Amino acid sequence: MTRFWVLKILRTVLTLWFVVTFAFVVLRTSGDPVVALVGADATPEEVEQFRQLWRLDDPLWIQYFRYVIQMATGQFGISYRDGREVIDIIIERVPWTLILGLFSYIGAILIGVPAGIVAAIKRGSTFDNLIMATAVFGFALPNFFLGILMILLFSLSLQWLPSSGTGTVWHLIMPAITLATFTAGTLARFTRSAMLEVLDKLYIRAAAAKGVGYWKRIIFHALPNASIPLVTIIGLNIGELIGGAIVVETVFAWPGVGRLLVTAVSSRDLAVVQGLVLIMAVTMVLANLVVDLLYGLLDPRIRVQN
């Protein structure tokens, strides 16, 4: 039992270290940030002064160890562009991303899971085919394309909803639907597969033979045993939501961390990019860790095998 938890936490720490190192290497090898920050018209003296100011003239290995120590202690540094603490800049944007992610994820679960259950119960029927066709369509449709289509239809043509920004609940509807579509389609497909596998088990037939009601068999016997693959997909799709939020927030000018990341990358603000990459990595890794731990709680055999 203890070994199971220790191994999972150790893998989490190693994964975060790899992500931090990878981000450092990629950002340092993708071009000189100083040129992008000071502008092409800056003199060599101004460029050198900027390097010394932000300690970018140190050897890479020194910058790396300073960077790792800062990330490990939660000190994300100062933005090269506006001179503010990176953590303050990120904290300003986090609530907006949480609002968008929470509403879209709850909507995706409330739509995708019941749709998958109904499709499994009605397998082979026209209703099943319709649900799966809709799920595949939602799964395959790119976020940016769906977002643009919704803006053209509901903002420009019908003028029902605002096309961008924040301020009212109406601003949230299109970004949340756009972000939830992919996840809802994925959940519907996997819920159907998991339920079909469980519904064919002998204990479901035994429950029916004992006189257990149909919906009671579905809710209390089939659904709990189909929950392990669903927990996996729900956990992994948290990462998909973070990645999708970058596109959706840009399309709808939503002031979250996704849009901040795009702005920071385009302006080569390394401190902000590094802080955002670490926070996103921590979110996805912790989601996977929670999934692993839930595995051990839902199925004791997994703890024994590990």
Automatic annotation (TrEMBL):
One of its GO terms (cellular component) is plasma membrane. Its main location: membrane. One of its GO terms (molecular function) is dipeptide transmembrane transporter activity. Keywords: Cell membrane, Membrane, Plasmid, Transmembrane, Transmembrane helix, Transport. Pfam families: BPD_transp_1, BPD_transp_1_N. InterPro entries: BPD_transp_1_N, MetI-like, MetI-like_sf. Residues 94-295 form the ABC transmembrane type-1 domain. It comes from the Bacteria. This is ABC-type dipeptide/oligopeptide/nickel transport system, permease component. It comes from Neorhizobium galegae bv. orientalis str. HAMBI 540. The lineage of its organism: Bacteria, Pseudomonadati, Pseudomonadota, Alphaproteobacteria, Hyphomicrobiales.
